[in-house]
Amino acid sequence: MDSCMKRLRLLRSSQDIRDQSAEVFLNVDQFIVPLFIVEGKGLRNEISSMKDVYHLSVDEAMDQIDTNLKKGIQKHLLFGVIDSELKDDKGSAAYIRNNLISRAINEIKSRFGNDAILLSDVCLCGYTSHGHCGLIRNGMVDNDTTLPLIAAMALEHARAGADFVAPSAMMDGQVEAIRNVLNNNDLQNVRIMSYSAKYASAFYGPFREAVKSAPAFGDRKTYQMDYRTITQGIEEAGADLSEGADWLMVKPAHAYLDMIQRIKSRFSDTKLVAYHVSGEYMLLKTAASMGLVDELTAFSEVTTAIRRAGADYIITYYAGQLADSLKKAAL
Ligand code: PBG
Hints:
This protein is of the alpha/beta class. It has a single domain (25-330), classed as Alpha-Beta Barrel (TIM Barrel), CATH 3.20.20. The chain contains eleven helices and twelve strands. The strands form two sheets. Strands 1-4-5-8-9-10-11-12 form an eight-stranded parallel beta barrel, surrounded by seven helices. It has a two-stranded antiparallel ribbon with strand order 6-7. Helix 8 (257-266) links the parallel strand 10 (247-251) and strand 11. The protein is globular. The model has no long low-confidence stretch (mean pLDDT 97). The site of ligand PBG has 11 residues, from helix 6.
């Protein structure tokens, strides 16, 4: 009698055969690297909460971008990190003329032109004395009075030459407010990468240490999403698209692979970004430093899983090392 046993191991029997069977691939043009920019010159200081990630002055950031470009990584997501004394309750340093990030964008674009693709984070939390992403009114984060400030911040970055502005405050209507201000200022070509489905997550801990943006009171649960929900994420993505977003995002990534898949299958014509966030990065880094997992293999596996779920682009602090390993594999 013929056996009906399936010989599926045939598809795994050698490296060549496994390579031929692979369906999901990483590529450097999928990577977006976050950079933390500080005032000053010649500064490259490792962030205490994030191994191998640095606070960089603009000149050092340019060196880093140069290195990344040589590896084929073009896309950089910029965050400003300022001293506490410069923070106020309205986050003014975020949107004043010639602010830290505007100057950084300007300098980077003057040197690298379109080789460097710059996305700028648009949110007040790194600039407010209270650490919230919007204005406080009657003890609450107020949606509508925050919108003009977010729009002003996006406008400053766009004027400086950002390719994308990336609103991450989770205020309703933030994409529409930005799209309007860009259109009214002849900056229609600037795109919007919206942090659409952004969850109130424990995994932002190391990042908040890096930008000193932990909320001084309460938490972000009145604006970032509850991780027990499903449909809200899809609604958020749909709202951002209808308000004029060009790229959508799910954040965090590793713990939200299902949301990546759901949003990608619902809005399949739109590029979807996933943010492998600081806490997710440090989980792997820490396990690797304890000898529990192999670092490169673990990051490759997780990053590929994010792709497999449906992300077109991945924001990852590990982009440089992944690019190195892809290059090696291609040799
Ligand atoms: C700002 C912002 C945060 C992150 C990106 N933009 C933190 C937060 O919402 O508190 C987190 C990124 C990371 O953890 O790597 N709104």
